[in-house]
Amino acid sequence: MLGGIDNNLFFSSFAGFAVLGVLIILLRWAFSRGDSLIEKPKSIGDEGEYGLLRVVATPANHIEGEMLRRKLIEHGIKATLTQTKSGPRLFVFPEEVKVAEAILKS
User: What's the pLDDT tens digit per position in 19-49?
Assistant: First the structure.
């Protein structure tokens, strides 16, 4: 007996609050908006909408762009080929722009 109160009743009332707290957390997680397991549809952007990446080549089609991208990868430069509103573009990071342009000219 804890201060004249039945211990079973005292502790079971706190267990109800704990269960209610777990249910609140579970329901907030289940019905929250935000991260989804379903992938968002891809959108085509302008050349300036790709963060740090800079355009080094404007191929006529994706086949030509993939050939240029593979050439850069063979020389150890990370390159990304993507479709923009202006057509396919080959992007690299700013510190590799000059090297990539030299490789593509050769």
Answer: 899 999 999 888 877 766 777 788 888 888 8
Structure-token pair, residue 28: 């907030």
Give the CA dihedral 49, 51, 53, 57, nearest 10 degrees.
0
Residues of the chain with pLDDT below 50 are none
Report the SS3 class of residue 40: coil
The Cα–Cα gap between 27 and 41 comes to 27
Six-digit token string for 64:
């030509």
DSSP 82: E
Q: What is the largest CA-CA distance in the chain?
A: 91
Side chain identity, residue 56: V
Query: What is this structure's pTM?
Result: 0.60
